[in-house]
Amino acid sequence: MSTPPAQGPAPTDLDAALWSAGVRRGRDGALVVAGVDVREIAATQGTPAYVLDEADFRARARSYREAFNGAFAAIGTQVDVYYAGKAFLSVAVARWAHEEGLRVDTATGGELAVALRAGVPGGDIGLHGNNKSDAEISRALDAGVGRIIVDSLTEIDRLADAVRARGDGRRAPVLVRVTTGVHAGGHEYISTAHEDQKFGLSIAGGQAMTGLRAVLARPELELLGVHSHIGSQILDPAGFTAAARKILRLRADLAAETGYLAADVDLGGGYGIAYLPGEVPIEPGRVAEDLAGVVGEVCADLGTAVPRISIEPGRAIVGPTTFTLYEVGTVKPVTVDGTPPFTRTYVSVDGGMSDNLRPALYGAHYTAVLANRTGSRETVLARVVGKHCESGDVVVYEVDLPADVARGDLLAVPATGAYGRSMASNYNHVPRPPVLAVTDGAVRVLIRRETEQDLQALDAG
């Protein structure tokens, strides 16, 4: 094994890019979020728990809406911002997003049901999915969703046939998802625009144009436009601008061939956030200006009107709003073979891969801080691990923690708002943690903690 990394900044430091705006340290070193001490949260709500700063969520939603509307107004068009519910969705979160002027993007019938329960009008909801069931299509048509993003040639006919069978004369609004060949994203599993994968129709292979023609040929469908999503956790706007050029060219080619100039272009989401100290998240203002510049320039070169644009941020809005609060259990120093040998301290917490699968699934890296006190100035090289029966049950691979970290302490892992609860499981029959919203000095439960009774209720015996 390699030698340990150099010691980082003092463990009491908080990198603002990783935390919600409402997080600070109190005088005695304990974390405080939106006016609430984490020790109070642990005492009243238990651990582990996802702790979400509502005001920060709302501010990040507004920042995307304002940045993109401002940048694209300068080139004479409008932008619809869809909150990507796959990152994290609850009734309250869907409601907050809509109250801040966003629409809601869903990927399954379950997500669609949550958005509808939140009171989001059907026209402000989009439905994704590479393998939509008949029931999901029917529910979307019943709800009058504003757009259905079709993902395959067979889905086009399935959707059109479902509309025709209803016999009410309405048409289904459709975007065709295409793959641009632009590769972007933090891991192979979340890079979604290369051709050899399950999403969309390839531009290079000709399937994208075939799909667009097929939609135009079905009177039951209304072709709104073209959709592209190139990946996730992207920190460089260059991928977005390269994909935009290809999408706008495809749109122009369709117009030249058929006379139909699609009104809408969706440029997807995938805007990256910071997970480790020193990382720089993508700024909504920067990517909005870059994209608006490219869209205006390319449309001028092609001689086409500028389309209405839509985007789908999820992680960038909810990710930094939330940290996971754990209680420390076993603390175990382990001597590791290296050059020279070194000691790594394994700090076990009362959660793990059941509440944050990303480190095990993607090798994703997080950091952690001692949350209930300042701790000693001396630090130890620690690995934060969970309680599950897997050696890969790692929450934080490497972090400097105070050397006096001990059983009963609280640890906070920032930037877990995206995909933490969404990917959570009941591995080893561990109930999933609650999601707690904190605002103006008050805590309320958005999603309650599961119990062993909840799990037993599913078991038919």
Distance between the termini: 47 Å
Mean pLDDT: 93
Reported CATH architecture of the largest domain: Alpha-Beta Barrel
Give the full name of the CATH homologous superfamily of the largest domain: Alanine racemase
Helix content: 25-40%
The best one-word shape is: globular
- Please report which band the strand proportion falls in: under 5%, 5-15%, 15-25%, 25-35%, 35-45% or over 45%: 15-25%
Number of distinct beta strands: 21
Low-confidence stretches: 1-12, 186-194
Structural class: alpha/beta
Could you tell me the radius of gyration in angstroms? 24 Å
CATH topology of the largest domain: TIM Barrel
User: Which CATH class of the largest domain?
Assistant: Alpha Beta
Brief synopsis:
The chain has twelve helices and 21 strands. The chain has 461 residues and is of the alpha/beta class.
Walk me through the topology:
Blueprint: E1 23-25, E2 31-33, E3 36-37, H1 38-45, E4 49-53, H2 54-73, E5 79-84, H3 91-99, E6 103-106, H4 109-117, E7 125-127, H5 134-143, E8 147-150, H6 153-166, E9 172-179, E10 201-202, H7 207-217, E11 221-228, H8 238-258, E12 264-266, H9 284-302, E13 308-311, H10 315-318, E14 322-336, E15 342-349, H11 358-362, E16 369-370, E17 379-385, E18 394-402, E19 410-414, E20 435-439, E21 442-447, H12 452-457
Parallel strand pairs: 4-20, 5-6, 5-13, 6-7, 7-8, 8-9, 9-10, 9-11, 11-12, 12-13, 15-17
Antiparallel strand pairs: 1-2, 2-3, 4-14, 14-15, 14-19, 16-19, 17-18, 20-21
